[in-house]
Fold this protein.
Amino acid sequence: MPIHHFQKFKKSFLKDRTSIYPYDDRISYLGALAIEKIGGKAVPLPSDVPYEFWDAERLEGRGILSMRHAALLSGIGSMGKNTLVINAKFGNMINIGAILTNLELPSDPLAEDLCIKNCRLCLDNCPQQDLDGHTVDQKLCRTYTYTTNARGFSICQCNRCRIVCPRANGLN
Ligand code: B12
Ligand code: SF4
Ligand code: SF4
């Protein structure tokens, strides 16, 4: 998302569950079309649902691809203890999209670790205490975070682990 749009709509970006991901998916789709135009094969992957795996009892899902791990390996950023990817310029306020392709593309070098060594702000501020520094207890996070507002729209009511991070907006 262009940064001036993001600054203007940050509050709704954080709460939104329904219109941001189609926006991401559209960028991946356009990227895939661009790859096919130059002769490659390309499949855009969904940035949120559908899941590849779902455990209804533990409310635990996995995407077709873990975009955070793909982002780490492609040099976009490093992983914070809140499990979110931190980019040097945009912090953890990035959403990630992915395209599978048969083009052989050179990778960027891995990014430097931006998570602050002795910091625990995200862990200590999570209202559900569902973060352990490596992973997240999805059931605890989901049941607290995802809800509907008075008008029936699906919203994210918690982003504490994202907002409290001193790297939330990058190094600037
Ligand atoms: C399921 C899901 C959730 C779940 C689980 C989150 C999670 N951290 O995995 C819940 C509902 C809790 C969630 C919440 C949120 N989510 Co979410 N979510 C996803 C989704 C759809 C799949 C992630 C997944 O498969 N997780 C399961 C596995 C991979 O995670 P794990 O068990 O922690 O993995 C550990 C091990 O299994 C192992 N491992 C597993 N796979 C691999 C692969 C490799 C190569 C390696 C080395 C290791 C490894 O290492 C991991 C760390 O210990 C992704 C989109 C996508 N397709 O990636 C978005 C995504 C991760 N979510 C995102 C966001 C923004 C959020 C929220 C901020 C939104 C909100 N307020 O609801 C919160 C943040 C909560 C948090 N601290 O994670 C963004 C993250 C952007 C960023 N900057 O990193 C993503 C990437 C969506 C996107 N397209 O941008 N989400
Ligand atoms: S979104 Fe909220 S409940 Fe979920 S891990 Fe982050 S701080 Fe905890
Ligand atoms: S709040 Fe602190 S510990 Fe958590 S991801 Fe940000 S820098 Fe790392």
